Amino acid sequence: MALLVALWRLVGLDWRGIWTEIRQINLSLFLLALLVYYTTLLPRAVRWRRMLRNLGHALPLRLLGEVIFLSWFVNHLIPAKMGDLYRGLILRRREQISFSMTTGSVLAERVIDMCALLIVAVAAAFFFVRGELLTEMRGVLLSAGILVVLIAGGLFLFWRLDSSLLSWLPHRLGERFERFQRGIFTSVQPLWLIIILTALAWAAEAGRFFLVANAMGVPLTMPQLLFVFAAGALLLAAPTPGGLGAVEGGMVGVMLLLDVPVDMAAAVAIVDRLISYWLVLIPGAGYYFTHARLRL
User: What was the pLDDT predicted at 132?
Assistant: First the structure.
């Protein structure tokens, strides 16, 4: 909330102007965006089911979809992505699946998602600036490149660690690390299928943002909207609950660089986050407290 207030003071938001923009929304497109947003649960659940099957566990698609949805709720309520740990804890309690192995598969998901968003952001930036990098974008693109290198380097080191190198660890801890390592690397086979399911999941997320932008009449091209979406999605990694404050600030900041009026930029960020944040908390809380089998 402090980040939102800081953004308001820094940019000088006019809440009356923002409300005027929101009142002009195309309600049909907004409801369609809400529907499209929840379709992302299907490819995410299918992807996780495949990853767990690679680890020797066949679980119902409905159960995995429910766990993923409730992990969104937990992530939106508690900082530091605690919803990812929630997924591992639930499967350990309900299905007796190794917590280390499950969290390894979730980490693999996160890495693939991050790389996909970085590729989309960089490609969209190069496309809409037509070869001339905007001064304001150089730092973003450089940071993206550094992050890709760090992720690749970290995964390579993780992959090279084997039992002989872990012999100095206590036996039980070494076994957990091996299960965690297996959860990361064994779960992503075949990689092409995981990539396709990842693309479908993020296509639904991007579709939500495109519909919101069109409902608000944002004067940006498709590549520009794609860049704004990718920048906001990357900021979900911020350690606040659901990226609260960071995502809104990033989206507004990028749209201001693209000459979108400040009131319209703030209105788009608010409406989009209404779908992807606030309207997850309400049904998420109801589902959590009415399904004891999925509570910790």
Answer: 46
